[in-house]
Specification:
The complex is a heterodimer. Chain A contains no helices and 11 strands. By secondary structure, chain A is mostly beta strands. In chain A, strand 7 and strand 8 form a beta hairpin. Chain A starts with a strand and ends with a strand. Chain B contains no helices and 12 strands. Chain B is globular and about 45 Å long. The chains are: A mainly beta, B mainly beta. Chains A and B meet through strand 5 and strand 10 of A and strand 5 and strand 6 of B.
């Protein structure tokens, strides 16, 4: 398997613009996670899905952030409008189960909002 | 709720020397424990995990960790490091009794020099 695929790898945008990050999980994995990594706050879980259904979105910072998973092989994280403080590396991860299972991370999307 | 404390933000070490990365956790219930590694400009990957049984866990790349329930610790060790071990290392915990999230520590940057 190719692993978790994220696109784009880098995104530079201006404040106020809409940003869409994309993720393809490993085939057969029922759980998908979106994380944000910054120097100040470390690695934070934003939201996770089970069988395409959002289970816990308590980590989503505010209404400007939204995530969808229309099918088992694709998810998006959207920021609208973007702000400079959203600059971070966003990771997508997937796992077959919860609990004891390993999460497999994608390479991340480095977002810079000017 | 559970929390994870990584006691060292940065650990410099010479090639072929041993290294120990410290991790302490707090939780009101039993937890599963994980160590992940993040190489520069990459996503996280699992080094090892403790679920149950033997308290000494062996992982990939010669790393091992010991679970100490009385001290609520899960320290990571390698007897002889290579330049390629330069990376950031994250300790993480998850409750065993629920669909709990994976809680990451702040990370420890290991820099291996010749």
């Amino acid at each position: 398997d190719a692993g978790v695929i994220q696109s784009p790898r880098h995104e530079v945008t201006e404040m106020g613009q809409e940003v869409t990050l994309r993720c393809k999980p490993i085939s057969g994995h029922d759980y998908l996670f979106w994380y944000r990594q910054t120097m100040m706050r470390g690695l934070e879980l934003l939201i996770y899905f089970n069988n395409n259904v959002p289970i816990d979105d308590s980590g989503m910072p505010e209404d400007r952030f939204s995530a969808k998973m229309p099918n088992a092989s694709f998810s998006t994280l959207k920021i609208q409008p973007s702000e400079p403080r959203d600059s971070a590396v966003y990771f997508c991860a997937s796992s077959q189960f919860m609990g004891t299972d390993t999460q497999y991370f994608g390479p991340g999307t480095r977002l810079t909002v000017l | 709720a559970q929390s994870v404390t990584q006691l060292d933000s940065q650990v410099p070490v010479f090639e072929e020397a041993p290294v120990e990365l410290r991790c302490n956790y707090s939780s009101s219930v039993s937890v599963y424990l994980f160590w992940y590694v993040q190489y520069p400009n990459q996503g996280l990957q699992l080094l090892l995990k403790y679920l149950s049984g033997s308290t000494l866990v062996k992982g990939i790349n010669g790393f091992e960790a010991e679970f100490n329930k009385s001290q609520t610790s899960f320290h990571l060790r390698k007897p002889s490091v290579h330049i390629s071990d330069t990376a950031e290392y994250f300790c993480a915990v998850r409750r065993t009794d629920s669909w709990g999230k994976l809680q990451f520590g702040a990370g420890t940057q290991v820099v291996v020099t010749p």
